[in-house]
Design a protein that fits this description.
Layout lengths: L4 H8 L7 H22 L3 H26 L7 H26 L4 H39 L6 E8 L6 E9 L7
Antiparallel strand pairs: 1-2
Length: 182
């Protein structure tokens, strides 16, 4: 018995669901609850509060990043600036929270190093979202105003005429190179 077209299409392109994000979130949730239980059992209530905050902030951070990626890159709306600010503040608070939690049980020199890493990471995210992104958008606006960002090439295409076997002129086409050709 020969398979029909519907059956061959399903076997050629099987859809395999990927559950990696679900597994990662389950693993994160399991570790969070086990850490909360350990901290609660030892009477470390500030650690419980910190872990709950990090858990909720992580999901809110992922939500904000998804919203930011859904916006067009050239969008200059207050919503985009607000999302960038929220992402920067949340990541900075999480970095400094971890630095504070680790500084309580490590050597003061190592604690200073951990706080320096938190400051550098926060400064890098600030630079990435506010300084570098602004420079890139200004350069794009300047290129649009000057009009020198697009080059038009005229390509003369030669072809063969099948009846006379001679080279004949065909259409002249304009090609605008994309970013992959520049």
């Amino acid at each position: 018995m020969l398979p029909t077209n519907d059956q061959t299409q399903n076997t050629n392109n099987p859809e395999i669901p990927i559950f990696l994000p679900v597994v990662a979130h389950f693993y994160l949730t399991f570790n969070i609850f086990s850490t909360i239980y350990q901290a609660y059992a030892h009477g470390d209530f500030p650690m419980v509060a910190f872990i709950v905050f990090v858990y909720l902030a992580y999901f809110f951070l992922m939500y904000c990043m998804t919203l930011l990626q859904a916006l067009p890159p050239q969008d200059r709306s207050p919503r985009k600036d607000f999302l960038k600010s929220v992402i920067w503040v949340l990541t900075s608070v999480i970095f400094f929270g971890f630095a504070y939690q680790f500084s309580t049980f490590i050597h003061p020199v190592a604690a200073a190093f951990v706080f320096a890493l938190a400051i550098l990471a926060s400064a890098f995210i600030f630079f990435l979202y506010f300084v570098y992104d602004g420079q890139q958008q200004q350069q794009q606006q300047q290129q649009k105003q000057s009009g020198s960002s697009t080059y038009r090439l005229r390509i003369h295409v030669l072809g063969f005429s099948p009846s006379t076997s001679k080279v004949c002129d065909s259409k002249i086409r304009q090609v605008v190179p994309g970013p992959e050709n520049v």
